Amino acid sequence: MKAKPGTWWRLAALFGLSAAWLLLLCSTALAHARLVESYPDDGGTLAESPEQIQLLFSEPVEAEFNPLEVYDQGGGRVDEEDARVSPNNAKLLVADLGGLSEGSYTVEWRVASADGHPVSGAYEFVVDTSTADASEGAGEPIEPIERAAEQEGTRSVWGTNQVAVLGLLLVGILALAGLVVLRRRDGTL
Questions:
Q1: What is the C-alpha end-to-end distance of the chain, expressed in Å?
Q2: Whole-model pTM above 0.90?
Q3: Contact assessment for residue 54 and residue 143, using Cβ atoms and an 8 Å cutoff
Q4: What is the rounded CA–CA span in Å between residue 187 and residue 44?
Q5: Mind listing the pLDDT tens digit for each residue in 142-173?
Q6: What is the per-residue pLDDT across 70-107, written as a single tens digit (0 to 9) for each?
Q7: What are phi and psi of 126, to 5 degrees?
Q8: C-alpha span between 112 and 161 (Å, rounded)
Q9: Could you point out which of 23, 51, 87, 175 has its C-alpha 20 to 30 Å from the C-alpha of 164?
């Protein structure tokens, strides 16, 4: 059976509109996350050991496989190996620290952007108890500090790719509905 002259045009238009709609919904997922703020600040000096490392990104991030590690000047790992995305803010990566002695520390991080693209970086800060000021360029915690044990069981069920998955499902449903409508018009259904 031959299709009507405008059938393929309508189907192509439906597909094009669906694809444009999906791209508009996922536009925020197309950019890569970038580090916006950190605690302690890059190059900051603290008069006392911080309880946590906090990294704020420009978009929600996925944190898997040791996304944040802190090393002392001798190369020993000093974080509590509990890095996680904050349950209160999907853009905030946190890791608890034990008591740090005087010295310089390196923070290394690696997370996945909302689009799945990995981004990484590193910076340093110093703990110097002889500093007269409470902290020099160290900044303030981005979020009140909560330990990992206090946050257990509050993780989100959905990942950051939920919009893309839902969009693809909707495009599939729209394409199927368009096909059904076209076949009904042609009398083949």
A1: 12
A2: no
A3: yes
A4: 73
A5: 887 776 555 444 444 445 456 666 777 788 88
A6: 999 999 999 999 999 999 999 999 999 988 999 999 99
A7: -125, 140
A8: 11
A9: 87
